[in-house]
Amino acid sequence: MVRKETKGSTSSSRIQSYVNSSEKQQQLYKRTLLIVVISQVFGGAGLAAGVTVGALLAQDMLGTESVSGLPTALFTLGSAAAALLVGRISQRFGRRSGLTAGFLAGGIGAIGVIISALTSSVILLFISLFIYGAGTATNLQARYAGTDLANSTQRAKAVSVAMVSTTFGAVAGPNLVEVMGGFARGIGVPALAGPFILAAAAYILAGLVLFIWLRPDPFIIAKAAMDAQRTTNHSTTEKAADVFSNKRGIFTGAAVMILTQFVMMAVMTMTPIHMEHHRHGLNAVGLVIGFHIGAMFLPSLVTGYLVDKIGRNVMAVASSVTLLASGFLAAFGPGDSMVVLITALALLGLGWNFGLISGTAILVDATSPSTRAKTQGAVDVWIALSGALGGGISGLVVAQSSFAVLSIAGAVLSLILVPIVIGYGNHQDKVKEKAS
User: Does residue 245 carry a pLDDT above 70?
Assistant: First the structure.
């Protein structure tokens, strides 16, 4: 479908009409944000299921908590593979094709988890969780769609709008654990598989929204506009001068997102198990994870404004400080206190939010449409792999030591961001001095 749009004479003239009109590009930018918002509401609900009960389902089926981090590792590894594929599909065919394929794959994975619970098949559970990870990757990559036609002062805002819309589904998802568990039991499905029924429906709906309404494709328009601009006024010398600076920007943006993802996933994955040890029920787990995911997405509009207003680097450092506070509170606060758990996990989500939006803005600033989607997909692979590593080792760390040790380790690791961001800021200052 997308191939026909880009090659057909009617579609070519339509694309050219957007290339020639900045006003039409801004109209499409606003329309794209609306479509992304709708899809992200569904995508957020799909994302929340595995986060909330994935570890508990695996523990129930395997009978041991030492591998409780494995489900998170699996669907995060699946997310890594999907991020690469979605990025490459988007680069070649546009956001519509890439995002639709990713969400539909996530829905299929969720259906597989339900079947594995019905048949008590651990192998099918692991395979399905891997495929389910495609939804997580796509939910994250959807944030880029809003930035394709955004100017430099709109990029963080575009990311934040996409992320805050995820909140509605992401917060509702964990708090529907009990309801979906009861629904699942009513139709003969194990209660812990109930949230994956919601995930399957949510991911498939998110994919259909994008497939039906995300046209014309904003990424295809952005590529065409950049090609036209380069033809008229972008010299080879200017392009070569930007290469080194862009590489530094890509590295810094990637580092911010990768480290915050690692810390967040490690601590979050073991929180339900930690709470179970302190005799908190499933409703309490859902409440804490709901606050956590709310903090990951709900502050996005304010975060986006701050990233655009006071700077990407300042907010990246703020991410490190917030994660540090979260780690120490989780480590030293009483495990039977819901107030402490909610506050620690909310700070964990907020630190991730600061890091993802500031890191995404740095990455978009450092790329052009000719390679942007592919680069974004590649970076999201490393983000997903860092999350898989964090989720995978978290169970082992807690089994061998404690949840407190895991939280302290995450807090200390988050400090690595500070010298990376300061170094990039100094580099930017030197570039500006040379330019002036």
Answer: no
270 touches 406 (CB < 8 A): yes
Tens of pLDDT, residue by residue over 77-133, are 888 899 999 999 999 999 999 999 999 999 999 999 999 888 888 889 889 989 998
For 223-236, write each residue's pLDDT tens digit: 888 877 766 654 44
Distance CA 394, CA 167 (A): 25
The angle subtended at Cα 411 by Cα 168 and Cα 283, nearest 5°, is 40
Instruction: Name 180's Cβ contacts closer than 8 Å, sequence gap at least 6.
Output: 194, 195, 197, 198
Domains of the chain: residue spans and CATH: 20-228+238-435 (1.20.1250.20)
Distance (Å, whole) CA 212 – CA 148: 19
379-423 pLDDT per residue, tens: 999 988 888 788 878 888 988 888 999 999 999 999 999 999 999
Q: Is the pLDDT of residue 5 over 70?
A: no
Q: CA-CA distance, 413 to 260, in Å (whole number)?
A: 9
For residue 363, give the nearest of 139, 156, 225, 76 by alpha carbon: 156
